[in-house]
Amino acid sequence: MGMKVEQVLHMVGGAGETSYATNSRVQEKAIFEAKPIVEEALREVYKTALPESMVVADLGCSSGPNTFHVVFEAIDIVDDQSRRLGRPPPEILFFLNDLPGNDFNSIFQSLEGYEVKLKEEKQERIPPFYVVGVPGSFYGRLFPSRSVHFFHSSFCLMWLSRVPPGVESNIGIPLNKENIYISETSSPAVVESYQEQYQRDFTTFLQSRFQELGFGGRMVLSFLGRTSKYAPSGELSQLWGLLAEALNAMVLEGILQKEKVDAFNLPFYAPSMEEVRAVIQSVGLFDLDRVEIFKSNWDPFDDSSDDRIYDNIISGENVAKSIRAVIEPVIARSFGEQILDNLFSRYAKNVARHLLEEKTKHHVFVIALKIKV
């Protein structure tokens, strides 16, 4: 990619038309789907540790309403559990972590408004809580040893720490031409490089969190995955393939340079559940306490459970907006901001065409982990 991922990978900030805050309904639905699992884990952590001060860390918090869904959900759960046990509610310290390019300013500018809203909803005094921003990559240590009670991460662990090195030869020749992710036309060596990068990254993630979790600590992690054992197949290969198609069309029209597009690959990998389990077992530090897999339509505003597409043009535009909110900074860094509107207009049309043939859904993995005893 010719750049450090942590310097460029972040959601579109602010609250504008193309911002993540405006276009993150897929992620919001995942947070609500995972809520029962988060609640169970938080209650168990509190009952086990009975802390006077509790530390909760949200890894890959991004910005916008979704950030505060997690914060206030945790406050409600811990407050309720302490009352059930006849104990005063603990102080809660929230660490909100994301890469340095994240819009942390937006988070803290809007915090007071969300706090007022919470007090109005509860109509009573809320437990004391504190919110701290922690910029940095979660593929490494972020916190002191044994300092965190609960880790949460949603829609983040499919992003890798780097583009896998195997997408180019030893002398820098692109080996995954006309693709931006693994596909049916990717070589076995490229696929293997993605798989190995995922294994390294998830291993580092688990080892780091083990060092940071205290007594009774737990994690709930939600991320995109695939149900097929064959890595180049599946919904996410299709999703990114349609964006690659738009980029390659712009090459043919002389808008983009072929060399740049051929060298562009995403730091992304959607694992199978078998791969997730294999890394957890190999690391040997956590028990897999609970696993859920649910489906979510590509179109974030389509909440139907059937296979009918009601308006493929609008759905294509909705998908393009949601993907743009996530990937725009990476695209702009590689190809320039001037191509963004053109590219995502083409992408919307490609997605609309695809949805006429097949209503496609994401597979969202939710796993709960606890430290082995």
Automatic annotation (TrEMBL):
Q: Which GO terms describe its molecular function?
A: metal ion binding; methyltransferase activity
Which terms are listed as keywords in the entry?
Magnesium, Metal-binding
- Which SUPFAM superfamilies does the entry mention? S-adenosyl-L-methionine-dependent methyltransferases
| Origin: domain of life | Eukaryota
**One Pfam family hit:** Methyltransf_7
Protein name according to UniProt? Anthranilate O-methyltransferase 2-like
Q: Which organism's genome codes for this protein?
A: Phoenix dactylifera
Q: What is the lineage of its organism?
A: Eukaryota, Viridiplantae, Streptophyta, Embryophyta, Tracheophyta
